[in-house]
Amino acid sequence: MKRVSLLFVIIILLLVSACNAKNSNNIDNMKEIDITQKVNDKVQSGLEIPADKYVIGTDTLYVTLVGHGSLMFEYQGKIIHVDPYSSVADYSKLPKADLILITHEHADHLDETALKEIKKDETYFITSKVCNEILGYGEIVNNGETTKWNDIDIKAVPAYNIVHKRTDGELYHPKGRGNGYVLRFGEKLVYIAGDTENIPEMEQLKGKVEIAFLPKNLPYTMDDNMFIDAAKKVMPKYLYPYHMSEFKEGEIGEALADTGIKLRIRPMSNK
To answer: pLDDT tens digits for 194-206?
Structure first.
């Protein structure tokens, strides 16, 4: 009788051990599947430079302020770079571009060293006329014109100086020469102002923009008061100051306190 009981106990222990081993294998298999799914759905943004995430319908827009006037967007698996500038980031470590937007021809916006690091054979370019003449390629979109890329509407808008000039009297950014851009991701508009002052055309965007990038540095773009005025002209939901050397967050934040605009302050270099 004792032998029968002992045998029964041994059989039970063997069955329990086998079940545990089977469950362990199932858990391991589930982990492998999860890891595979994560790899297949991998987001490229945020790996080298922190990215902000905005939900747009069933999609997600990843926004990276690379530094200075340089931006990167990721949307529906596509990478868009704006004015890549090799002085503010190591572009060899950033995702390759499906689309590159160039606002104007100055060296901190049209940097062929950075372009070589991120362009692919199939990378598409949208540029101003002057940038196209320098590069020898790219779709020319002039102020007021609209194009479409990968279901994203892209409008070139004015970006120019009214006040600030060089010693010879020429404006740093003459009207009609460079572009700002308005991109439509789903139903949301993103405004990339480029190098500009608080120009009257900004009023046309008032209350329509989800995310805006406005420059603030002297003598090339805007001073604090111009920046505040530009922000109130556009009235975006989220505002990124960029192309700047310093930012008085307290004073400017207080001046915009009653607007509902949410300031997003990010580093001007990630190198």
So the answer is: 999 999 999 999 9
Residues 118, 91: contact at Cβ < 8 Å?
yes
pLDDT tens digits, residue range 163-176?
999 999 899 999 99
DSSP secondary structure code for residue 9 in this structure: H
Fold of 52-263: Metallo-beta-lactamase; Chain A (3.60.15)
Distance (Å, whole) CA 28 – CA 25:
5
- In the numeric block, which tokens belong to residue 18? 């086998």
Max Cα-Cα span within the chain: 111
Q: Rounded to an integer, what distance in angstroms lies between the CA atom of residue 151 and that of residue 148?
A: 6
- Tokens 């530009």 correspond to 230
Nearest alpha carbon to residue 46 among 103, 107, 93: 93
Angle in degrees, CA 233, 51, 37, rounded to 5: 135
* pLDDT, position 42: 86
